[in-house]
Fold these 2 entries.
Entry 1:
Amino acid sequence: MVPMTRVVAQGTFDLLHPGHVHYLENAATYGDELHAIVARRPNVTHKPAPILCAEQRRDMVAALGAVDEAHLGHPEDVFVPIERLGPDVIVLGFDQHHDEGDIAEALAERGIDCRVERASARDPRYEDELLSSGDIVDRIVERRGPDRDGDCGDRG
Ligand SMILES: Cc1cc2nc3c(=O)[nH]c(=O)nc-3n(C[C@H](O)[C@H](O)[C@H](O)COP(=O)(O)O)c2cc1C
Ligand SMILES: Nc1ncnc2c1ncn2[C@@H]1O[C@H](COP(=O)(O)OP(=O)(O)OP(=O)(O)O)[C@@H](O)[C@H]1O
Ligand SMILES: [Co+2]
C-alpha cells in the first residue's frame, strides 16, 4: 500500500476570506491529507492581534473542504504540533515571513524528516475583492467606524 502524504499548513486565519481558501486548497495538492495549525494570539507578533479567538478560528478552518483536520497551535513551541503530526510536507503561505531554509534547519535539528514548500498567491477575481484579514478590518473601520461619512452617530 502507498503511504499517505501528510501536509501541514498554518496561519492566523482571522476573518476568513478567499485567499485563505486558496492557500489551503493549494497546500492540499501537495499530499493526501491536510492538517492546518492555527496560530495562537501571543505568537501573532508581526501584525495586530486577531479579532477572533483561536478556537473559533480553528473551527472555521476545520469546516473548509480542503482541510482534513484543524488544530490549535502550541502557545510556546511551534514545533510541538509538528512533532506530533509528523508531516511529510509543510507548505508556507505565499507571503509568510518565515524562511524555508531556517525552517528546514530547525526541522533537521529536531530529527524531523519533512520538506518545506511555498504556496501560490490568489489573484483577485472580482472588483473590490478583499483578500486580506487586515484589509477587511480596515474596511469595517472605514465603513462602520465613528468617522464614517463624517457621521459620529451615537458615539458623539
Ligand atoms: C511550521 C510552523 C508551525 C507553526 N506552528 C504554530 C503553533 O504551533 N502555534 C502558533 O501559535 N503558531 C504557529 N505557527 C505560526 C506562527 O506563529 C506565525 O504566527 C504565523 O506565521 C502567522 O502567519 P500569518 O501572518 O500568515 O497568519 C507556525 C508556523 C510555522 C511556519
Ligand atoms: N490572497 C491570498 N492568496 C493566497 N494566500 C493567502 C492570501 N491571503 C492570505 N493567504 C495565506 O493564508 C495564510 C494565513 O493568512 P493570514 O492569517 O495572515 O491572513 P491575511 O489575510 O494575510 O491576514 P493579514 O492581512 O492580517 O496579514 C497565510 O499563509 C497567507 O499566505
Ligand atoms: Co497575512
Note: The chain is about 30% helix and 15% strand.
Entry 2:
Amino acid sequence: MLLGVIADDFTGAGDIANTLAKGMPDVTGQAGGLVVAQYMGVPDRQADPAIEAGVVSLKTRSIPVDQAVAQSLVALKWLQAQGCRQIVFKYCSTFDSTPEGNIGPVAEALADALGVAGVIACPAFPTLGRSVHQGHLFVHDRPLNESGMQNHPLTPMRDADIRRWLGRQSKAPVGLVPAAVVRAGSEAVATALRAAAAKGETLAIADASTDEDLVTLGRAAAWAPLITGGSGIAIGLPANFIRAGLAAGTATRFEGVTGPEAILAGSCSGATRDQIEVHRRDHPALAISVDDVMNGITTSHDLIGFFRQNVGKQPLAFSSGNPHEVAATQTRYGREAVAGRLDELFADTARQLVDGGVRRLVVAGGETSGAVAQALDLGDLRIGPEIDSGVPILISQKRGIALALKSGNFGRTSFFAHALDALSGSAFDRRQ
Ligand SMILES: Nc1ncnc2c1ncn2[C@@H]1O[C@H](COP(=O)(O)OP(=O)(O)O)[C@@H](O)[C@H]1O
Ligand SMILES: O=C(O)[C@@H](O)C(=O)COP(=O)(O)O
C-alpha cells in the first residue's frame, strides 16, 4: 500500500476514496487513479497486496478528543505496517469540529508521531463550492458561519476564520500559505511549508479555490509523510505515484446489484432536507418522530414494518429536522442523547434490513452512515463509480450489497432515486 488515509467519518472516507480512485486526468494530465479499498475501522488483518490506497473510516469527528487521537494513532500504525509512504488525515470540507477539536489534536498527534511540521491543512473542495481565501473558508459565496453550517446539530461552525479556529484546537501556532504563494507554484509552496516548520508551526492552512490550486498543493507535498484536508487535497496525489512509476491505473467494472432497497436519512443538512422533500413527493416516506424515539414509542420494529410494506417503491425513513426542530429536541433531551438514540435506531434497522435481504442501501449523513456501516459487518469496501460529486458506489463483497453513504450536504435534489438506480446500474467503466 502506497498511500494511507485516516478519515474522521464514513461518508468523508467514501468521498476521498472516490477522489483517489477517480484521479483527475483533466488537471493532472495523468490518467487514472489508484486501486482503493475503504475499511470500516482499523482492520485486524493485513491488506490485500493489490490495494494501492487504503482508507480507514473512523467515527472520530464528534467523540472526545483523547479517544479521537488514540483511534487515529492506531489507524496510523496499521497503515504504516501496510507500507504506506504517505498519510492523509481527511476531515470535512466544512471543517466540522468544536473549539476543542478534533481536527487540531488529531493532526498534531499524527505530525508528532511522524516527526513532521509545516503540514498542509486545506479543506477546499472547489467542485462543491468550498474554497479557502486568506485562511477563511467559504461555501460558494457565503462565509462558513453563514452557510447553514452554523446550525449543524453536532459541530455548529460559527467562525469562517479556520486558521483562528484551528489555532484554538492546536498546541502550536497555525501558519498560512496564502493564495499568492499557491499561485506561484509547488516549489513556492514547499518553501513556505519549510518556513512554517522552522517557525514552529505544526500545521499551516493553505488557500485553494480551484482544482489547479489543489494539484499544486499535491505536487508540493508529493513525498510529504503527512497531509491533512478535505477530499480535494487528494486530487493531485494519484498522479504523484503514477508519474513515479509506483502505481498504474487498472480498469474495473461495476455490474450493479439488484434486490430490495431502503433509504435512511439522519442528516439535518440543507441538501438532505431538500432531497427528502423531493423524494417524498412520489415515494413512500416515513417521518420518524424524535420524541417517539426518545420515549421508546418508535423502534426499529416500526421502521422494518414500513420498509417491508414498501419493497420496490424506493422507501425512505428520515429523522431529519430543520434547525428550529433540532434545537428544540436537543434542549429537551440533550445533544448526545438524541444523536446516540438515533444512531442506535438507524444501526438496528440497517442490520435487520440487510439480514432480511435488502441489497441496495442509501444512507444520508456522516454520523448516521458511520453508525449504520459499523453495524453491518461489511468487510473491505471496493469503490465503484461516482453517483454524484463526492459520493461513490461502495461495494461490500462480503455481504453482497451495494451502498451509497451520502455526506449531508452532497448530492442533487433527486439524489435518493438516482442513487438507487446507480446501485442497480448497468455496467459502468471506471479506471481504478
Ligand atoms: N430531528 C433531529 N433532531 C436532532 N438531532 C437529529 C435529528 N435527526 C438527526 N439528528 C442527529 O443529527 C446528526 C446529523 O449528523 P450526520 O448524520 O453526520 O449528518 P450530516 O452529514 O448532515 O452532518 C446525527 O447525530 C443525527 O442522529
Ligand atoms: O468533506 C466533506 O464535505 C465530506 O466528505 C464530509 O466529510 C461530510 O461530512 P458529513 O456532512 O457529516 O457527511
Note: The chain has two domains: 3-248, 253-431.
